[in-house]
């Protein structure tokens, strides 16, 4: 067993207590942090996918943007049609 010298400075890092947040509170917190540039979209994505490194997360986000863009035209049209139908009812 090795002893620690008496003149050595020790530091203890206690875990931060994180309260349980509802999905609404979590999203509001993420939105606020994004607006203040405290986190990035990559940080949010990696929090839900911790097995990805930063480059993998960026690649998946870019692919999602392309997919959403292609599918979004159809989705937006469907939503617009639904909204027009609700106004006419």
Q: Can you give a write-up of this model?
A:
This protein is mainly alpha-helical. The protein has one domain. The chain has 3 helices and no strands. The mean pLDDT is 83.
Outline type: elongated
**Strand share of the residues?**
under 5%
Helix tally? 3
What is the helix content?
55-70%
Number of DSSP strands?
Answer: 0
Q: Radius of gyration, Cα only, in angstroms? A: 23 Å
Helix/strand/pairing category:
mainly alpha
Mean pLDDT over the residues:
83
- State the distance separating the first and last CA atoms: 81 Å
User: Tell me about the biggest sheet?
Assistant: none
Strand and helix order: HHH
- Residue windows where pLDDT falls under 50 for at least 5 positions: none
Overall number of domains = 1
What is the gist of this entry?
With 89 residues, the chain is mainly α. 63% of the residues lie in helices and 0% in strands.
